[in-house]
Every structure is written in C-alpha cells, then in structure tokens.
Automatic annotation (TrEMBL):
This is Acyl-coenzyme A thioesterase THEM4. GO terms for molecular function: hydrolase activity. Belongs to the THEM4/THEM5 thioesterase family. Residues 66-133 form the Thioesterase domain. It comes from Rhodococcus triatomae. Keywords: Apoptosis, Cell membrane, Cell projection, Cytoplasm, Fatty acid metabolism, Hydrolase, Lipid metabolism, Membrane, Transit peptide. Pfam families: 4HBT (PF03061). One of its GO terms (cellular component) is cytoplasm. The keyword Lipid metabolism applies. It comes from the Bacteria. The keyword Cell division does not apply. One of its GO terms (biological process) is fatty acid metabolic process. Its main location: membrane.
Length: 180
C-alpha cells in the first residue's frame, strides 16, 4: 500500500447508506440478474466508500468436498471490491487481486463481504475486503473467514469499445460503467 494515498470523494450517484446498489451489468457473473449461471450477489452501500455484499454458497459452488471453491470466493471478492469502487462514480477494472483463505466455508453458508476503497493514486484504486459467515452450519458473524486486497484501475469508455463485438446481450448500467 503506497504512503501517498488520496482519499476520494463519494460520488453523488452512489446510493445513500443502507441503499441497494444496482447491478453494474445485467449479464455479470457476479451480480447480473440476466445471467442464469451467475452468483446473483447483492450489495448495500456503507457510510463511506464501502459496500456490504451477500453471497449464498450454493451446492454448485463446491470446490473441495463440502466447501466453497476458492475461485468462486475470489470472484465474490472481485465483485465486492469492484462494487465498492462504484462509490467513485467511475468505471474500473481489476488489475491485481489477492485472497487469504483463513477458514473453510461450507456449502449452505451465507457470506457477507465488507469491501472498501482504501485510497487512490492517480488511476489506481486500492481496495480491501473481508468475508464472514452470517448464516449456515458454521455461522459466526465475529469471525473473518477470508480477506482480500485488490488494485483496480479507472478506465474510460474506450476500454469497453475495444471488446464491444464480444458482448452477450445489451449493456446497461445506471452508473455508465459498462456502456460500450
Ligand atoms: C464501478 C463498476 C463496478 C464494477 C464491478 C466489477 C467487478 C468485476 C471486475 C472485473 O473482473 S474487470 C475484468 C478483469 N480485468 C480486466 O479485464 C483488466 C485487464 N487489464 C487491462 O485492461 C489493463 O492491464 C489495465 C486497464 C488494468 C491497466 O492498463 P493501462 O494501460 O490502463 O494502465 P497502465 O499500464 O498505464 O498503468 C497505470 C498504472 O497502474 C499500474 N498498474 C497497471 N496494472 C497493474 C497491475 N496489474 N498491478 C499493479 N499495478 C498495475 C501501473 O504500474 C501504473 O502505475 P503508475 O500510475 O504508478 O505509473
């Protein structure tokens, strides 16, 4: 984490604390409601540059016997930290993401992921997050079961222009983060 982090302003377009965030793209594997294979994560805004996301750990997300696949958990962190970046009111993409898997997460768990922007340096957005099991066989809302840190880069419309021919569906986004 650099020493010269700036503290960005919360964008006026970001929902009020406790408000539900819109999906950033209906076909998104993480949050889209028009993606049958997806995780349909939901998010509410925090008081600052932060969100809390919810993931139901379905049987199809199994990795090791009885527990969530590490890649699915990594995807959930990617989505949550990306959604925290919605508080900037600017499109971002993931540049780097790392996860620490602290405890097993059984199938049937409901995970809450609290994600935030720690600060920015030019186009670089530094984020962090932690996951807790709030419902299910080993629920303990005080225990952190996994943590993540990620770097996002703000991008302009030209970033998505380059891939517009591969889009499945009609892009839509209240925050104009996925417009191509
Ligand atoms: C708000 C919307 C909500 C969205 C939620 C979405 C959740 C899901 C998000 C995703 O999964 S996005 C899909 C996965 N990610 C991608 O497809 C991105 C693929 N990579 C790229 O397109 C480019 O590599 C990228 C845009 C990330 C960076 O390329 P650029 O040419 O724009 O950046 P550039 O090389 O000029 O570097 C700018 C700065 O970032 C730094 N940087 C870039 N990539 C880095 C990296 N990987 N690690 C560390 N630093 C990195 C780089 O060193 C430099 O630092 P300085 O400003 O200090 O000079």
């Amino acid at each position: 984490m650099p020493d010269d982090l700036a503290a960005p302003e919360r964008a006026p377009s970001f929902p009020a604390p406790g408000g539900q965030l819109p999906q950033h793209w209906s076909k998104c594997f993480g949050c889209g409601d028009d993606q049958p294979a997806g995780m349909t994560m939901t998010f509410v805004a925090g008081e600052g540059l932060d969100v809390t996301g919810r993931l139901e750990v379905a049987k199809k997300y199994q990795g090791g016997p009885g527990v969530i696949h590490g890649g699915i958990l990594t995807t959930a962190f990617d989505e949550a930290q990306g959604m925290a970046c919605m508080s900037l009111g600017t499109a971002v993409v993931t540049g780097h993401l790392e996860v620490d898997f602290a405890r097993p997460i059984p199938l049937g768990s409901v995970l809450e992921i609290h994600a935030r922007i720690d600060g920015t340096v030019r186009r670089k957005v530094y984020t962090s997050a932690e996951a807790r099991i709030v419902s299910g066989p080993t629920a303990d809302p005080d225990a952190v079961v996994a943590t993540s840190r990620a770097l996002f880069l703000t991008v302009g419309a030209e970033h998505f222009e380059k891939v517009k021919n591969f889009v499945d569906g009609t892009p839509s986004s209240p925050f104009e983060t996925s417009s191509v």
